[in-house]
Write the structure tokens for this entry.
Amino acid sequence: MPEVTGTASETHWLDQIKPIIINLRSRQDRLHDSLAELSRAFNRTVGRDDVHLIRPPRFDEPSGFSNVGFRSNLEAHLAAARLSQDNSNMVNLILEDDIAISSAWATAADGLLSELNDRPWQIANLGYLDHWGEVAAASAQNEETGPRWLPFRGKVNGLHAYLLHRSVLDRWIAHLDTVAHGEPGDQLLGPMPSDGALNTFTWVEPHAVRLLAVPNLVGSRPTRSDISPRGIDRLPVVRALAERARRQRFRRRRDAASRF
């Protein structure tokens, strides 16, 4: 269990942890928006000095991965895990730089974070994409209602916001390192995106307890991709305007959602 001071009802114990944000040096726009999202979550100003930054390495070759972006991202998550191992925290918060605090945070985060003090766990996803519908299927079999943690060993997309418990760090680091240097085509231990590596980790490490937050506490903002940019994002003149339009559209949708 996380050995942290305070309780979620008094102050988020999460707010006492210095988050680790994975951010390309060239994407200061994403870092700025991520800090704004954390400021919303913690109800205070979160600046650059309040977070650790992991800069994904640049590669010229994919080395077994589908593309260099997937390789860079997995190596960044590996670096974040190693940084977590080097500090004294029992729990570390790992974030990618396109996070978006969901409308459910205000009502669900306190209770869910507090619950982590009283149950065994190793990895807790604060956000994910249920691309295969496995979360919905597992939730339907669970009689609990309302905000809850869902024990999970299936497949989800996304590794943009998660908590790592110190008890799992050695095994998680070893798994990511194996994936980074694995045999291409190996569905369990070969090169794959970082979210796929977390899915397979729970299959090869059956004693690792993975929890998913229901509902999602953290989503992803629509933003220009550095892995596969759209045509409009390849044009410097209109790139900034396109990014601004994405931000405005996202904020309007979130504001509308928060009214329900």
In short: The chain has two domains: 13-223, 229-260. Residues 236-257 form the longest helix (22 residues).
